[in-house]
Design a protein that fits this description.
heterodimer, A: mainly alpha, two-stranded antiparallel ribbon, 70% helix, disordered N terminus, B: alpha/beta, Rossmann fold, five-stranded parallel β-sheet, 41% helix
Chain lengths: 314, 417
């Protein structure tokens, strides 16, 4: 008797014209969804985009970053301090996990992308189970610091959550930092050299192995930062990585592999598209429309928004 | 080349997702129900087994682990007091992992491999719907201890949580009596919220209440900013929340961030009990309303005993909640049925219950099994969440309400089933 229940059962409710405040609020919601997408995809843009390593355990690195906040909050009672300390600590923890993964497994499989996929997927299962054994199967919550639980009143109708502003700031800072490193530092030059032509970089005397490890450290560390941000939105659980990883890959693929610029633009475009369509329809319909849009876009531009041919990296 | 690699990666990704979905399955189809009569119950030894089927992992674990704990408490108490029909009970616990096919497989395992006398568990209606055919095919007993959307009756399921006329309808009556003229419906995207909202809309249409919007988020979803914006823009006088599991955490965080409060737009929740309040955080929930049949603060000697025993076993900081109480009560109700039948035989136990007269002085008050519907009489209670994390009753129905799973006694509900 319940079979007939579906979206069709929706009662039509009066659709007033969209007030400006709603459009602004939704725009900001879209930007903040985009910021989350950007944070979870940024590390992947480096390891998958630049190094072409399909790391299925990236989502579990994000989970590890989130649990780091949880662990720190157990020992540091102040929610604000523990969150700020968690940023560098999570970066280091997940970065190191990335390096260990790179040294032990991925390095041996650089020429075999599909094997890398399977191996890292196995690693992700191991990490999920480890989280379950260490922290228990039920999801856990952290308490947000008081300066992030409130909201910023823009006008009477427009209220922006402080936690969302914080995540947006964090995402932009992470992108800026990554771009500066890639563009201006010698490490960045070495990373770009290895990405563009590994053999030539090697004969020019670059220790490509060490560059790979450093790249992987930064990419995995960024996953930790994303994990910290996610604790402000929802619960922390062993399976949170699996829900994230597909979206992260989508953003990188649509943005164009090897293109930081593409990742940034696509994250925000998808975020705004999702929030706008969701406002007009429902969550499920919005997801379908976004996926259809992605498939259509990839039919038209299989190489993604930007192509590597330009040789520009950021 | 890149095109190929990307395509391969995407195909591999979806393959991996599909594999993960199947990962938890166990191939267990051995054993089959005996022809005629109920499922075989193993009564050969000095003990008899009972099955516990709850999600101990995944998004529903936040709620279901406590239900498992309450069932175990009842089993232990019964054993200490001498067992049932001279036999000690052995609890066999299985993890449904918040995954409906897994529930069905674990149910089959409990019935055919462990030969349990009864199974206690399930929380979401999706998991109940998944195991219902298993229990019916094997003619085995399930005690389902959680409030649900009604419109269901199975000869092999006893529903010890509230049906709609013991929870949702009283909650709507309460909203109406406090002058709320419009509601916004927010729920998880599965059977219970969609059916509950269908009932709410029928009620609203007949009672001059406006439904200003209706939104569903996938189970486990943590992105609620758009839904909260829609709720806010609707200007509804109250929100009816049927979200399940820890989506509630994200929803209430977002709700508070958007500047909405229990004073400006109260939220009535039907799936948030004391345990969930604790993990969502009282700073997000204080002042909001809930609809249940039991709170830790419910008065009575039976409840004092239950709360004390539970805290002694699991820790002083552990609250008790409605589904836990209903699960705990289920075990005692089953004991009363078996003792009345003088047998563990499933058809005899059922016949004893259907003849009526099975009662138990439960923590929520006297509970009577309605033999005709296999539901129980329950007192409806509306509560307000306090800043200490406990829920204080603000209204109750005065007496146990007769279960009416198909809402046959309500004229506005005629088109629903």
């Amino acid at each position: 008797m319940i079979a007939g229940v579906g979206a069709a059962a929706l009662t039509p409710y009066p659709r007033r014209g969209l007030p400006v405040s709603v459009i602004v609020s939704q725009l900001f919601t879209g930007v903040s969804i985009g910021a989350v997408l950007l944070l979870i995809a940024l590390g992947l843009a480096l390891t998958f985009g630049q190094m072409n390593v399909i790391n299925m355990a990236h989502g579990e690195f994000i989970m590890a970053g989130a649990y780091t906040v949880y662990v720190l909050q157990q020992s540091i009672s102040s929610a604000g301090a523990s969150l700020l300390i968690a940023l560098p600590v999570s970066f280091a923890v997940t970065g190191l996990m990335g390096v260990i993964l790179e040294v032990l497994l991925i390095r041996r499989l650089y020429a075999r992308p599909l094997d890398t996929l399977l191996v890292t997927w196995g690693v992700s299962l191991i990490l999920q189970q480890a989280a379950r054994d260490i922290f228990g199967a039920p999801n856990v919550q952290t308490s947000a610091p008081s300066f992030l639980t409130g909201s910023v009143q823009i006008t009477d109708d427009i209220v922006i959550a402080s936690s969302r502003l914080f995540i947006l700031g964090l995402a932009l800072a992470a992108v800026a930092a990554l771009m500066i490193v890639l563009k201006t530092t010698s490490l960045g030059r070495r990373i770009r050299a290895v990405v563009q032509n590994r053999d030539l970089a090697a004969v020019s005397g670059l220790a490509t192995g060490r560059v790979d490890r450093l790249t992987f450290f930064i990419g995995s560390g960024l996953a930790g930062i994303a994990g910290v941000a996610l604790t402000l939105i929802g619960p922390i659980g062993p399976a949170m990585g699996t829900n994230i990883i597909v979206n992260a890959f989508l953003v990188v693929v649509v943005g164009g592999i090897g293109q930081l610029k593409g990742t940034v633009i696509v994250a925000f475009v998808l975020g705004i598209l999702q929030s706008m369509v969701e406002y007009a329809t429902t969550v499920s319909v919005a997801s379908v429309i976004v996926f259809v849009a992605i498939v259509a876009f990839l039919q038209w531009r299989p190489q993604g928004l930007f192509t590597l041919r330009t040789r520009s990296l950021a | 080349m890149f095109k190929n690699r990307v395509a391969t990666a995407l195909v591999a990704l979806s393959a991996v997702t599909a594999l993960t979905a199947c990962g938890a399955k166990t191939a267990d189809t051995a054993g089959s129900a005996p022809a005629g009569g109920g499922a075989a119950v193993d009564t050969s030894g000095p003990t008899v087994k009972v099955g516990l089927l709850n999600s101990l992992s995944g998004t529903m674990a936040i709620s279901e682990v406590t239900v498992r704990d309450a069932i175990q408490l009842a089993v232990e108490e019964i054993n200490t007091a001498g067992g049932v029909l001279g036999k000690q009970l052995t609890a066999v616990s299985e993890d449904g992992a918040s995954d409906w096919p897994t529930f069905a497989e674990k149910a089959q395992k409990l019935i055919s491999q462990d030969k349990v006398a009864a199974v206690f568990g399930c929380w979401t209606s999706s998991s109940r719907k998944a195991v219902k055919p298993v229990f019916e095919k094997n003619k085995a007993l399930l005690f389902y201890p959680v409030q649900y959307e009604g419109l269901e009756q199975s000869p092999y399921i006893f529903y010890t949580g509230a049906t709609t006329n013991q929870q949702i309808v009283p909650a709507l009556d309460y909203l109406k009596s406090t002058g709320k003229t419009s509601v916004y419906l927010v729920g998880s995207d599965y059977v219970f919220p969609r059916t509950a909202n269908k009932i709410i809309k029928a009620y609203a249409a007949a009672n001059g209440m406006k439904v200003l919007g209706e939104d569903y988020a996938p189970l486990g979803s943590t992105e609620f900013s758009t839904i909260v914006n829609k709720v806010k823009a609707s200007g509804a006088s109250a929100v009816f929340n049927t979200l399940n599991g820890d989506s509630n955490v994200a929803f209430f965080k977002e709700y508070k961030s958007a500047g909405l409060t229990a004073e400006s737009m109260p939220v009535v929740s039907v799936s948030i009990a004391e345990e969930e309040v604790k993990s969502i955080g009282t700073q997000y929930l204080a002042g909001q309303l809930t609809a249940w049949n039991y709170y830790q603060t419910t008065e009575g000697a039976a409840n004092e005993r239950f709360v004390k025993a539970y805290k002694a076993k699991y820790g002083a900081d552990k609250p008790t909640s409605d589904p836990m109480e209903a699960a705990y009560t289920s075990v005692y109700l089953w004991k009363a049925m078996a003792e009345k039948a003088g047998s563990f035989d499933i058809e005899k136990v059922k016949a004893a219950a259907n003849a009526g007269g099975i009662t138990y002085e439960a923590p929520e008050g006297l509970v009577t099994v309605d033999g005709a519907t296999q539901h129980v009489f329950k007192t409806a209670r509306i509560g307000k969440i306090g800043s200490d994390g406990l829920i204080e009753e603000v209204w109750n129905s005065g007496e146990p309400v007769k279960p009416d799973p198909y809402l046959k006694s309500y004229s506005w509900a005629t088109g629903l089933s």
